[in-house]
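INFO batch 0412 | record 1 of 1 | parsing
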Amino acid sequence: MSTGCIGQKIIEYEEKYETLIKPQDIVVLYTGHSQCYGQEEYFMEYPILTKEFAELLVRKQVKMIGLDTPSPDKYPFEVHKLLFQNNILILENLTNVDRLLNMSHFEIMALPMLIQADSAIARVVARIDLEART
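INFO prediction complete | emitting tokens
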């Protein structure tokens, strides 16, 4: 189901993620929604994660999740709460995630501003091994 830009409306748990996601991974999701940036629907019609998908991330003890959307969920922010309660950081509003699609291995570096707040602007960089293409 499309949001009007690109991608799914709901990112649901799938059995295949049990083997794809390894313990302590940083998970980066590509939905294509970043192409809507600058349009009203970017903040209104974005894909969200189901609680079941978030519970998988908790079970796998991932370090961080990155999204090309403004948030993993909407009010009352159950997914946010679940992830934060389990020390899983959230990277939102990523761009150029499509450039990682054919990479079998890459490193994510997130450099947040040091401010007293519940969130911060961060420069997020993916370092790739050009020989690691699938």
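INFO post-check: Helices lie at 17-20, 40-44, 51-59, 78-85.
INFO record closed
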